[in-house]
């Protein structure tokens, strides 16, 4: 079977060259084996709709547009017109496109010991059921192409007498399979077969695979929700049964802001860089490298048995702080102070639908998983000027839509956040009570889903969905007068959705509820992109939240 597969394709003029040819002649032979990682998949593995020239716009990833001379890179990327490395190069962008391997490699190299190498084979619009099918590859015959690339790349390491070990296989694919009923229904079995064939081909029975979630923040996460869910079920059928296959969440990463209504199909530059960090975190966890821990509060800053005012923050992209970077505050004396831990405000959180969660109460401070922050920093700073004994609990998922927060949820059952959200609030209250405090739940501060405003059917339904969320939360938390502060930034202004006056409808349904405060956050600083807020917008949103709370108190 192996020889039959390999006969399908051979990369033209691979012309294997030594790594030293590319300016690394003085490299010292490493003492540790080179850890080899394989990256494969379709367009969101290629890096479609990204630009290497934009990398430095995102401070955590500055410099990744330049070659990483200490990382070996061999690749074959594309469909009809393939881009090939013709041997090992230094890792860098290919054709001005950003792939997840750039940030992955830097983080893994920085956070663990030993040299690494990347082999990448990816092409947009390809199917696991067809192109990547090990038994009967069709279309662009990606499986035999990738096997040929990997074998030749490893053979060159052998020729150079460089010791190596196969360390992991990063896979992001599945969007195209959901358009074929048979491929979609059989995705789990096809993925299981794919994994086994790779292990057989490379004689690596324990090779670890890292399977990337299809991003639900894209437009397909809304208009093709049941199909995206079906692929995720297939993926998880493998990751839940094979201990060497890991499911890697990606729905919380940034997504390209497109034209028109702003929605897109691809991660784009920021999303690809964050996508790579997700793979790096998953790999590092698998080899026992623990992430750096934030400071914990050894004791809460309250007098014994004193009452505590608890504020709950909830929402999507901007409540999470998708494009607000801590580095962009560091040179501004007035805003830099927000980066300091506010030790008088205990803070707990669950971000990205559980991707990052606090283990205990921490001092309020930046907590985003990509050096980002949310409106809680300015909100907390403003609150403590007039209030004592406050605590903040934050629950967000930037890859969610409003329907995911409703008690009923949607057909994509695994995306339903309501039970987690309510339990998170209950746990926050319970922990404070266990420590001897009475708890006053001051309100839930919810920021309306940004993507929902760009997709007609969801924009139409959002007021009713929010109403259902508020109503049931009061029942489940046993607080019939619980205040909800619902913040709405200017909704998407485009002819495709402007016929739906969502602002007027939100105002109408909230008017009948004295404890539903609908806030039009329409005076935020001007933004460069639709949907998402930068640092100034996030800080302004936090300050507005504090003002609206004070107004409600008075």
Short précis:
The protein is α/β, with parallel strands linked by helices. The chain is built from 16 helices and 16 strands.
Supply the CATH class of the largest domain. Alpha Beta
- In what range is the share of β-strand residues? 15-25%
Q: Which CATH architecture of the largest domain would you pick? A: 3-Layer(aba) Sandwich
| CATH fold-level assignment of the largest domain | Rossmann fold
User: Major β-sheet, in short?
Assistant: 8 strands, mixed
Output the structural class: alpha/beta
Q: Specify the number of helices.
A: 16
The tally of strands reads 16
Low-confidence blocks of residues? 1-30
Task: Give the integer mean of the pLDDT values.
Answer: 94
Approximate shape: globular
Percent helix range: 25-40%
CATH superfamily of the largest domain: SGNH hydrolase
């Amino acid at each position: 079977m192996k020889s039959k597969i390999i006969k399908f394709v051979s990369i033209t003029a691979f012309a294997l060259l030594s790594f030293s040819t590319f300016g690394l002649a003085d490299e010292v032979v490493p003492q540790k084996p080179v850890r080899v990682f394989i990256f494969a998949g379709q367009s969101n593995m290629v890096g479609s709709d990204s630009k290497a020239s934009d990398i430095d716009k995102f401070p955590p990833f500055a410099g990744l547009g330049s070659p990483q001379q200490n990382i070996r890179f061999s690749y074959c990327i594309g469909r009809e017109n393939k881009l090939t490395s013709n041997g090992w190069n230094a890792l860098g962008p290919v054709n001005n496109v950003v792939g997840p391997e750039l940030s992955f490699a830097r983080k893994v190299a920085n956070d663990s010991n030993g040299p690494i190498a990347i082999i990448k084979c990816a092409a947009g619009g390809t199917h696991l059921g067809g192109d990547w099918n090990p038994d009967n590859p069709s279309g662009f015959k990606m499986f035999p192409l990738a096997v040929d690339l990997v074998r030749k790349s490893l053979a060159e390491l052998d020729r150079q007498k460089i010791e190596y070990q196969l360390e992991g296989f990063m896979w992001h694919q599945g969007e195209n399979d959901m358009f074929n009923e048979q491929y979609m229904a059989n995705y789990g079995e096809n993925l299981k077969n794919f994994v086994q064939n790779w292990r057989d081909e490379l004689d690596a029975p324990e090779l670890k695979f890292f399977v990337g979630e299809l991003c639900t923040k894209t437009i397909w996460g809304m208009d093709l929700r049941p199909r995206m869910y079906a692929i995720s079920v297939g993926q998880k059928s493998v990751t839940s049964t094979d201990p060497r296959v890991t499911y890697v969440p990606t729905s919380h990463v940034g997504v390209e802001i497109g034209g028109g209504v702003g929605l897109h199909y691809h991660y784009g530059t920021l999303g690809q860089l964050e996508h790579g960090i997700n793979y790096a975190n998953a790999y590092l966890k698998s080899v026992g490298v623990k992430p750096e821990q934030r400071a914990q509060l050894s004791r809460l800053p309250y007098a014994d048995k004193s009452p505590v005012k608890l504020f709950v923050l909830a929402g999507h992209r901007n409540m999470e702080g998708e494009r607000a970077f801590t580095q962009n505050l560091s040179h501004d004396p007035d805003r830099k102070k927000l980066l300091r831990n506010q030790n008088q405000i205990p803070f707990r959180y669950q971000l990205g639908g559980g991707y990052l969660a606090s283990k205990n109460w921490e001092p309020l401070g930046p907590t985003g998983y990509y050096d980002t922050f949310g409106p809680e920093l300015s909100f907390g700073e403003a609150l403590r000027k007039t209030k004592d004994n406050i605590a903040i609990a934050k629950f967000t998922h930037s890859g969610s839509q409003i329907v995911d927060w409703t008690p009923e949820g949607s057909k994509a059952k695994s995306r339903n956040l309501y039970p987690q959200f309510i339990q998170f609030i209950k746990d926050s209250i319970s922990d404070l009570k266990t420590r001897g405090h009475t708890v006053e739940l001051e309100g839930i501060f919810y920021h309306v889903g940004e993507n929902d405003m760009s997709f007609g059917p969801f924009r139409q339904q959002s007021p009713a969905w929010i109403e259902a969320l508020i109503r049931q939360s009061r029942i489940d938390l046993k607080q019939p007068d619980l205040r909800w502060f619902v913040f709405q930034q200017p909704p998407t202004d485009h002819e495709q959705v402007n016929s739906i006056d969502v602002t007027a409808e939100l105002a109408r349904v909230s008017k009948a509820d004295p404890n539903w405060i609908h806030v039009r956050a329409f005076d935020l600083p001007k933004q460069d992109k639709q949907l998402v807020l930068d640092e100034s917008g996030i800080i302004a949103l936090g300050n507005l939240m504090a003002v609206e709370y004070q107004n409600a108190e008075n």
